[in-house]
Amino acid sequence: MKYNRILLKLSGEALMGDLNYGIDPKRLAEYADEIKQIHDKGVEIAIVIGGGNIFRGVAGVSSGMDRVQGDYMGMLATVINGMALQGALEDKGMKTRLQTALKMESIAEPYIKRRAVRHLEKGRIVIFGAGTGNPYFTTDTAAVLRGIEVNADVILKGTRVDGVYDCDPEKNASAVKFDYISFEDVLSKGLNVMDTTAFTLSQENELPIVVFDMNKEGNLVKICEGQNIGTVVTI
Ligand code: UDP
């Protein structure tokens, strides 16, 4: 396998599947199947999951809510998704641990780097919930941060688009996809891969990002095997 230890970032919205809100059990089971394929091949898997299918802090602000309060609600939403994903993975026989950046010890371990690494070494899938534990951040930043902390080889950003394009492929039929692109070129061309905080953290720590279509069966395993079916962002 090309990658031995990965940090998989899944957006909360992806879990909605065909629904308008919340968690689609069918999508959850599909993701668990995809993850099982790489787990069976011995890849060590850490996962950060978003919360946008349930709540986003900025959405609260637009209806008059305090931003910090809203962001904590968003972080709790990621824990709900993390628990759902944990259940789906365990249903398929994988061993998992959920670690949260905000303490909630009756349902999850607190985030402890050394413990997380030990779980990974033992073949357990570690899901990191509650983002970074701080308001004003995103789960993309949490993904890069945890990826660096546990020494992941790569951040795999699973989206509904199959890579990074020179313009929005959903609006422009002639958009061109990059197979590889440097961090610098992403910035100079004003492309959107992750929010700036997440992106520069990845760049500074030379942690590559692969953007790929998580909704296509078999893609996750192809990437871990080294097939370039998405876009690789590197130094
Ligand atoms: N959030 C936060 N700090 C973090 C991570 C997340 O405050 O470190 C909050 C923020 O309000 C965010 C919400 O949790 O809008 C859900 O996360 P995100 O928007 O990254 O989820 P995604 O877009 O991946 O579904």
From TrEMBL:
Binding site for ATP: K9, L10, S11, G12, G52, R56, T159, Y165, D168
Keyword Iron: no
Chain ranges of the Aspartate/glutamate/uridylate kinase domain: 4-213
Keywords: ATP-binding, Cytoplasm, Kinase, Nucleotide-binding, Pyrimidine biosynthesis, Transferase
Activity-regulation annotation: Inhibited by UTP.
Catalytic activity: UMP + ATP = UDP + ADP
EC number: 2.7.4.22
Single GO MF descriptor: kinase activity
InterPro entries named in the record: AceGlu_kinase-like_sf (IPR036393), Asp/Glu/Uridylate_kinase (IPR001048), Uridylate_kinase (IPR011817), Uridylate_kinase_bac (IPR015963)
Gene3D superfamilies assigned to the protein according to its UniProt record, in alphabetical order: Acetylglutamate kinase-like (3.40.1160.10)
Pathway: Pyrimidine metabolism; CTP biosynthesis via de novo pathway; UDP from UMP (UMPK route): step 1/1
Binding locations of UMP: G51, D71, T132, G133, N134, P135, Y136, F137, T138, T139
Domain of life, source organism: Bacteria
Cell compartment(s), UniProt: Cytoplasm
Enzyme class, UniProt record, top EC level: transferase
Function: Catalyzes the reversible phosphorylation of UMP to UDP.
Subunit field text: Homohexamer.
Family according to the record: Belongs to the UMP kinase family.
Protein name: Uridylate kinase
